[in-house]
Amino acid sequence: MTSALDVEQTLDRANSDVVLIVDDVPDNLSVLHDALDESGYTVLIATSGEAALQRAQQALPDIVLLDAMMPGMDGFEVARRLKAAPETAHIPIIFMTGLTETEYLVAALEAGGVDYVTKPIKPKEVMARMGVHLQGARRARQEARQAGQARNALDAFGYASITVRMNGMGDGKLIWQTPLARDLLMRYYGTSAPQTPEPVLQWLRRHLAEAGRQIEPPRLAVEQGPRRLTFRLHQQTGDGDGDGGGDWLIVMREISDDAVIEAMSLSFKLTAREAEVLYWVVKGKINRDIGDILGASPATIKKHLERVYAKLGVETRTAAAGMAVNRIRLLHPQFEC
C-alpha cells in the first residue's frame, strides 16, 4: 500500500498546490481537471467517497473540491470523515453542488466545508474561491512543516518524541511520533501508533490526576539489559479541557551502558563476558539473576566471577563492585548504579 510519505515525495509541493477533485461524473472531472492543470495545479482525482478518503490520507492535498451528491457515501459524509481524522482535519473543503436550497448549503458548511460553488461548474469561479482558502492552507502547512522539522531534529541528538492525546475520558491515543520514537516503542514495548504503551499511559494519567500541569512529574524509565529508555513530559501542545485533556508532548531518550561495559573490559583487561558479569554485579544482581540475563547457568557465572576477582586482585563481590564503580565514575560520571 502506498504511504502518505511515498505520495508526498512524488508531488512537487514547492511549485504547485495539490488539489483533490471528487466527483462521480467523468465530464465534470474532465473540465475541471484540464482547467486546473493548465493553471499549474497538481490535480488528483477520485470518483467515489471511499476513493476520496484513501487519496486524501495518502496525498494530504492542499484543498479538496467535493461533489455533494454521489452514490454510496455522499460528499457530506466524506467531509465529516476528513474533518474527524487528525491527518486531514486541516484541509479546506469546497463543496460542488447543484442543490441551491438553503438547507443543503447549511449542511455542507456543517459537515466541514469552508465554501461552495454551484453547478454547472465555472472553472474561473472555482479557482478564485480556491485562491482565498489556499492562502490559509499554505500558512498552516508551513507551520506544520517547521514544527515537524524541529521535532525530528531531536532524533539526530538521540532524543525521540511522541504526542499523546488525552481527552476528557483519557483515551490516550498516540497521534504523532518521530521515526526514532516508533523504533524505540516497538523494541521496548512491542506497540505501535495509535496505541500508547500502557505503562506510559498510566504514568501520564497519574501525573494529570495528581500534579496537574504545573509540575513536571518524575521521569519514567524502563530497562532492557544494559539499556534503559526514559520518558520526560515536555509540554502540552493542544488546548486542554480543564480536566487533563489536550495533546501532550513526551520526549524519550535511550541511555546505553554498553560503553561502560567496554570501559571495564579495557580497564581491567577482562573478556567481554567477564565485563558483562562485573557490570551486573555493580548493578546489585546475584549470580542466578545474572545467569538469566546473560543466558548462562549460575555455575558459569560463578566461574566468570572468580576470574574477575583474580584480575582485579580482590577476594569478594563487594570489593570487586567497589573497584569497578570507582573506575567507572572516573570514565563515565553520568553512570547510575
TrEMBL record:
What InterPro entries does the record tag this protein with? CheY-like_superfamily (IPR011006), Sig_transdc_resp-reg_C-effctor (IPR016032), Sig_transdc_resp-reg_receiver (IPR001789), Tscrpt_reg_LuxR_C (IPR000792), WalR-like (IPR039420), WH-like_DNA-bd_sf (IPR036388)
Q: Coiled-coil intervals in this record? A: none
Whether DNA-binding counts among this entry's keywords is yes
Its domain of life reads Bacteria
Q: Residues in domain Response regulatory?
A: 18-134
Every copy of the HTH luxR-type domain together lies at 263-328
Q: Where are the transmembrane segments?
A: none
Q: Which residues carry this modification: 4-aspartylphosphate?
A: 67
Pfam families attached to this UniProt entry: GerE, Response_reg
Q: Which PROSITE patterns match?
A: HTH_LUXR_2, RESPONSE_REGULATORY
Q: Which UniProt keywords apply?
A: DNA-binding, Phosphoprotein, Transcription, Transcription regulation, Two-component regulatory system
Instruction: Write down what this protein is called.
Output: Response regulator
